Q: What sequence folds into this?
């Protein structure tokens, strides 16, 4: 267990929070600091009502002193929580007093970083703490909580153990070369690898959903000019953010809208009507629209009954992983009713941005795509986790490939070693200082 030699302190409540404010302190100087305020030793996990005084004995505030003796604390070190009135001025004085008694100001995320270094949390759990604080919807908060509780980490850990077992198996075969060929042909090896690959694919799918819950769904709205893209955006957002006019080509730039829809965060981008144009400004809009499409999780094609089939061509060039949704707009013009169907795995919905008919179904579809309905165990994930799982999958595929084609045990073992390494980066079993720095510096101070 890593133990820090210095003591850190920070205000742990949001600035200006009404009511209670908290100064948090962690490190070896904590028992002495507590003793100074109390005039005697602090009892661990006991609330002491004390007078906080400065170095001259002048009263700063009265409040509660909570002491958590190491290792039974958030950071795994001695921790002190001083609760006073929520005034920034008082809290600042209290923080200064702690610094006068041997603490230094904590960097952003430093408490959680220490918790990680002391084995209280793994890296994915630590990231979930930040995600929980930043959560913009109930669904994403619930998912972050699951990850903080270790639901995601346990799944990664189980895969890691299976991977290690398989690797040991294959490496043992390499050590006995005369038996290697037969051993590597053993169907049990291939089937173990297959099982591992399937478990990884399942976890990757859930992690992708967790990423959407965490980051919001990136939706790019595409379609010919005047088909009703801006109107749809306005109807969903309930505002006049995009300018709706009947003149073709008015949506020249990419408009963004961030909204929380039934507890799911959505990022909408309304793109310029994709079409060949002579107009320089509009051409730039079309270029941006195409860039937007490359980044999106979901491409929503807005069309109408007359042009639906022809407009499907606008999906051309979409990255393979991007989900599609077709919205047939303006059903009010033909006195049509909202309906939906699935065609070649793509959802089609009929609606009217003008009357609002069918909009509820659109909302529900977007909610599903955003990861809602993932059930009780849905956990949050970050992009780096998804990338690590994808990389693990590629190494597993390579391992299966070399086993099958050339029966090369060493090559397979090397692929599995690399797979183990990238997978282990998720929970921090393997981590670089750069990675830790990047993760914890994005936290807020006091966490
Ligand atoms: P965009 O160019 O695709 O963004 O299209 P707009 O949202 O600017 O809409 C173009 C025109 O179609 C405007 O006059 C809208 O009022 C109209 N419009 C949009 N949606 C509907 C709809 O569902 N029904 C009818 N009747 N008109 C619509």
A:
């Amino acid at each position: 267990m890593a133990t820090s030699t210095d003591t850190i302190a920070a205000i742990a409540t949001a600035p200006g929070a009404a009511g209670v404010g908290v100064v948090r302190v962690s490190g070896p100087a904590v028992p002495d600091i507590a003793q100074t305020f109390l005039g005697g030793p602090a009892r661990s996990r006991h609330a002491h009502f004390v007078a906080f005084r400065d170095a001259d004995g002048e009263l700063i505030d009265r409040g509660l002193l909570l002491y958590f003796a190491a290792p039974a604390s958030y950071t795994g070190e001695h921790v002190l929580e001083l609760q006073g009135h929520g005034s920034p001025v008082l809290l600042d004085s209290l923080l200064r007093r702690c610094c006068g008694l041997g603490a230094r100001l904590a960097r952003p995320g430093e408490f959680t970083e220490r918790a990680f270094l002391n084995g209280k949390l793994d890296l994915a759990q630590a990231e979930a703490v930040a995600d929980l604080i930043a959560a913009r919807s109930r669904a994403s908060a619930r998912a972050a909580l699951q990850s903080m509780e270790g639901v995601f980490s346990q799944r990664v850990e189980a895969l890691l153990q299976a991977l290690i077992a398989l690797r040991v198996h294959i490496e043992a075969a390499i050590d006995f070369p005369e038996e290697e060929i037969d051993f590597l042909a053993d169907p049990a090896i291939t089937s173990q690898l297959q099982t591992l690959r399937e478990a990884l694919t399942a976890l990757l799918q859930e992690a992708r959903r967790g990423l959407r819950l965490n980051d919001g769904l990136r939706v790019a709205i595409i379609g010919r000019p005047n088909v009703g893209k801006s109107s749809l955006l306005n109807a969903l957002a309930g505002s006049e953010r995009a300018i709706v006019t009947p003149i073709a080509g008015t949506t020249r730039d990419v408009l963004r809208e961030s909204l929380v829809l039934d507890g799911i965060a959505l990022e909408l981008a309304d793109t310029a009507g994709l079409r060949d144009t002579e107009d320089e400004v509009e051409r730039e809009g079309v270029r941006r629209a195409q860039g937007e499409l490359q980044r999106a999780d979901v491409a929503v094609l807005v069309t109408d009954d007359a042009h639906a089939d022809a407009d499907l061509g606008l999906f051309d060039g979409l990255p393979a992983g991007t989900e599609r949704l077709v919205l047939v707009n303006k059903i009010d013009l033909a006195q049509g009713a909202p309906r939906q169907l699935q065609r070649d795995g793509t959802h089609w919905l009929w609606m009217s941005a003008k009357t609002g008919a069918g909009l509820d179904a659109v909302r529900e579809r977007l909610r599903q795509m955003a990861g809602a309905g993932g059930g009780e165990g849905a956990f949050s994930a970050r992009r780096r986790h998804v990338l690590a799982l994808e990389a693990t999958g590629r190494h597993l595929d390579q391992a299966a490939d070399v086993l099958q084609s050339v029966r090369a045990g060493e090559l397979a073992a090397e692929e599995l070693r690399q797979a183990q390494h990238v997978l282990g980066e998720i929970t921090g079993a393997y981590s670089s200082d750069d990675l830790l720095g990047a993760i914890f510096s994005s936290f807020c101070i006091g966490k």
User: Anything to note?
Assistant: Residues 187-215 form the longest helix (29 residues). The pocket of guanosine-5'-diphosphate is lined by residues 223, 225-231, 244-246, 251, 273, 329-330, 332-333, 352-354 (CB under 6 Å). Residues 169 and 224 are 57 Å apart (CA to CA). The mean pLDDT is 86.
